[in-house]
Specification:
The chain contains ten helices and five strands, in the order H-H-H-H-H-H-E-E-H-H-H-H-E-E-E. With about 270 residues, the protein is mainly alpha-helical. The longest helix is centred in the middle third of the chain and has 21 residues. The C terminus is likely disordered.
């Protein structure tokens, strides 16, 4: 069990395979239905008063509210969400990823009933997945406006800024939904963040071993040159003897017992 997964032993059997694909599929279907019939979208958000009147499906359908309502940008939003979600699923496994989302979903339902007044959607749950991805892969590069390369950690800083602003000026129901949506991130990552901030720098440098010298990946079997000594050289494998040689010696290296000249394989 991961140190960032405190509920791993308690609810380890709860695992929804390919959960990201199911969310994208369900939300995408709602997006298409909403284009055809805009009034349909009003039946998705979590509204406690309507749930108590019998519309119990809202306890689940708010998770499938369209991730974006713009017909042009929706495709890219869904694609990016799929990339983030599947990356976390592959790293964590189905069970842990399910628990992460389940925590935020359960907390959002509780917050909606405790602080009614605004319909609840999946907005902050999606934000929680984005922040988890940015924390796990801070050097991941996205292309802003499809042109400008930007590391995702900087987008996360901007997102945290908007979330903080919402906590300051937003109405109480919205604040409650925001904190509820980030419950998964807080439970899974906050202890690690606090421990990392409190760790002395000197102790960290003492425990981390110094990286050793990098070994050559390509070495010519004839002249001994490598990608370390001469990075400009190209190397190929001889199909006759199986040895690796630079292009200068690929066809001229000694090859006893061969009837034909060595041939090139990539």
């Amino acid at each position: 069990m991961s140190k960032r997964d405190p509920f791993g032993g308690l609810i380890a059997k709860i695992a929804v395979p390919r959960l990201t694909l199911q969310i994208v599929g369900g939300s995408g279907a709602c997006f298409i239905l909403g284009l055809a019939q805009p009034a349909f979208l009003d039946s998705l958000p979590l509204v406690p008063a309507l749930v108590l009147q019998g519309e119990v499906w809202r306890l689940f359908t708010f998770l499938f509210y369209p991730l974006d309502l713009h017909p042009v940008f929706a495709f890219f939003v869904y694609y990016f969400f799929y990339v983030m979600g599947t990356a976390l699923e592959q790293e964590w496994g189905d069970a842990r990823y399910t628990r992460y989302i389940l925590l935020s979903v359960s907390a959002t339902v509780a917050a909606a009933f405790a602080f009614p007044g605004l319909p609840a959607t999946n907005e902050f749950i999606v934000s929680s997945i984005f922040l988890a991805f940015a924390y796990s892969y801070p050097e991941f590069v996205v292309y802003l406006f499809f042109v400008i390369p930007l590391k995702i950690k900087y987008l996360a800083y901007v997102s945290w800024g908007f979330l903080g602003l919402t906590l300051i000026v937003g109405p109480l129901p919205l604040k409650a939904q925001l904190l509820a949506g980030l419950t998964g991130f807080a439970v899974f990552f906050l202890p690690e963040i606090v421990a990392r901030k409190g760790r002395p720098r000197t102790a960290q440098t003492e425990t981390e071993p110094e990286p050793g010298p990098r070994e050559a990946f390509h070495i010519c079997g004839a002249c001994g040159r490598s990608d370390l000594t001469d990075p400009s050289l190209e190397y190929r494998v001889c199909s006759a003897c199986g040895g690796e040689y630079c292009l200068d010696h690929l066809k001229t290296h000694p090859h006893p017992g061969a009837d034909a000249a060595p041939t090139l394989t990539a």
